[in-house]
Amino acid sequence: MGKSMKRQKGVVLVIALIALVAISLAGISLMRTVDTTNLISGNMAFNEAAVQMEDVGEEEAYNWIIGNAYSNTNSCQYTQANGGSNCPSYYYSDVMPMDATTKLPNPGSGNTLNWSPASSTGLPPGYSVQYLIERMCGTVVGGAQTNGAAPTFANCMASPVYDTTQNPPALVAGTGRLFFRVTVRVSGPRNTSGQAQYFIGMEDNVT
């Protein structure tokens, strides 16, 4: 009887050790699951923040466009339209086709996109935005328009402006709403990134 009791005590010890190992493995697995969940949640939060930062880049581009109205003869847009070269590289006087793979403007074979310098002004630590601006104009078939020429209704995405104080409203000659495509990209912590595109319309001289 005594030997039987000793054997039973030995079995209980083995079972207790096996149970302890199983509980330990379960605890480790649970900890890893919690860590993975926290990591995924954190990455989603960073990505969501990156999406919100895109609006900051769009606002910077909008301010640049407003400050470079074609009607301002000292503006970058005016001088480039007439052969000048003082425009920043991230401004394109003619619209580019979209790349089917990257969903970004395609500057053509052998060329790369010229993004604006990275800016972190007004952004949380670790985030930066860049943008590029395309005037929605292009070359007219037949050679009537070349890249960099002044915008016209014939070669630009533009809508006419009407004087609504008259009845019926009268077309305002030489003025229109000229459109621009702005592409923004955001870089953030943990290699998060985002990109978005905006269309901006600005009333300006469009002859």
List the helices and strands and how they pair.
Layout: H1 2-67, H2 76-81, E1 91-92, E2 128-135, E3 158-163, E4 170-187, E5 193-205
Parallel strand pairs: 1-2
Antiparallel strand pairs: 2-4, 3-4, 4-5
Describe the structure.
This protein is an alpha+beta fold and about 210 residues long. The chain has one domain. The chain has 2 helices and 5 strands. Strands 1, 2, 3, 4 and 5 form a 5-stranded mixed beta sheet that branches. A hairpin with a 5-residue loop joins β4 and β5. The longest helix is centred in the N-terminal third of the chain and has 66 residues.
Keywords for this entry:
alpha+beta; five-stranded mixed β-sheet; 2 helices; single chain; elongated; 207 residues
Briefly, what is this?
Helices cover 35% and strands 23% of the residues. It is an alpha+beta fold and 207 residues long.
The multimeric state of the shown protein is single chain
Largest sheet: 5 strands, mixed
Number of domains: 1
Q: Mean pLDDT across all residues, rounded?
A: 78
Q: What low-confidence regions span 5 or more consecutive residues with pLDDT below 50?
A: 140-145
How helix-rich are the residues, as a percent range? Answer: 25-40%
Distance between the termini: 111 Å
Integer-rounded radius of gyration: 31 Å
Shape descriptor reads elongated
Strand content: 15-25%
Structural class: alpha+beta
User: What string gives the helices and strands in order?
Assistant: HHEEEEE
Q: How many beta-strand runs?
A: 5
Q: Provide a count of the helices.
A: 2
